[in-house]
Amino acid sequence: MNNMNQAVLLIIIANVLVSMKGFNDYSFLDKYKFQVSRILNGEKIRALTSGFLHVDWLHLGFNMYALYLFGDIVAKILGTPDFLIIYFGSLLFGSLYSLQYHKNEPYYSAVGASGAVSGIVYSSILLYPGMELYLFFIPIPIPGYIFGVGYLLYSIYGMKKQLGNIGHSAHLGGAIGGFAATLLLEPSIFTTNKILVIALGIPIVLLLFFGDKLKNI
Predict the structure, then answer these.
(1) Can you give the pLDDT at residue 2?
(2) Residue 177: closest CA among 92, 76, 66, 100
(3) Cα distance between residue 202 and residue 85, in whole Å
(4) What is the C-alpha to C-alpha distance for residues 149 and 165, in angstroms, rounded to an integer?
(5) Nearest CA among 103, 118, 196, 108 for reference residue 151
(6) CB of 199 within 8 A of CB of 126?
(7) How far is CA 105 from CA 18, 73, 83, 98, 172, in A?
(8) pLDDT tens-digit readout, 7-45
């Protein structure tokens, strides 16, 4: 923690404090959560504020753990300004994708930093493709790209099953935002890691064009 980038640490603290407020004050949660009808009626700030709210400690802990693992990689390689661009760009793109995906569901609502974190996960994998992770009770290292694909698959499952009050569609939108923003900020990745760019890009492209079919499966 002592060596963590300050911007990453501040975002984690902000998520914890805002989420704790929402845990204890439903009116606060209701005022700032993502909700399709409210956003379409002009409350656009919800697209941003919903990314700092969570449904419970498990939801918050999972997102902040992922941000802790991957956020520092992005910040140290690209620098704090680019990290912030990717984080907030992914958050907003995740909200925009959710808005499009659920546009005919006026009462659809969700909270969570999932969109922003998905973008950071994908960004870190592009920047550091050789990373390996030791997660929970798994005794062998897991390549970072496998974690990223698994995170995306969980998002797809959540979108289909509409699990909880969590913005699963924002996972996909955030991944797209983080993927695109990283390539724009660091275009050399196209030549240094072309195979990885294609491998991560294919499921994103397929889901972007055929994601709406999930509702009919």
Answers:
(1) 57
(2) 92
(3) 24
(4) 22
(5) 118
(6) no
(7) 26, 37, 33, 11, 18
(8) 999 999 999 999 999 999 999 999 999 999 999 999 999
User: Which amino acid, 183?
Assistant: L
Element (H, E) at 133: strand 132-133
CA distance 28 to 1: 30
Q: Rounded to an integer, what is the distance from CA 118 to the centroid of its chain? A: 3
Please report, as a single letter, which amino acid is at residue 160: K
In this structure, what DSSP letter does residue 191 have? Answer: H
Give the C-alpha separation, 166 to 137, whole Å.
25
Could you identify the residue written with the tokens 């960004």?
123
DSSP state of 33: S
**Residue reference for tokens 């690209």:** 78
- Global pTM value: 0.87
pLDDT (0 to 100) of residue 162 = 59
Q: Name the band, by pLDDT with cuts 50, 70 and 90, for residue 1.
A: low
Q: Which element (helix H / strand E) includes 35?
A: strand 34-35
Quote the tokens at residue 30: 């209701």
Q: Which amino acid is at 66?
A: A
Nearest-5° Cα angle at 144, 193 to 85 = 70
Residue tagged 């659920």 (tokens)? 102
Per-residue pLDDT of 50-93, as tens digits, reads 999 998 998 899 899 889 989 999 999 999 999 999 999 999 99
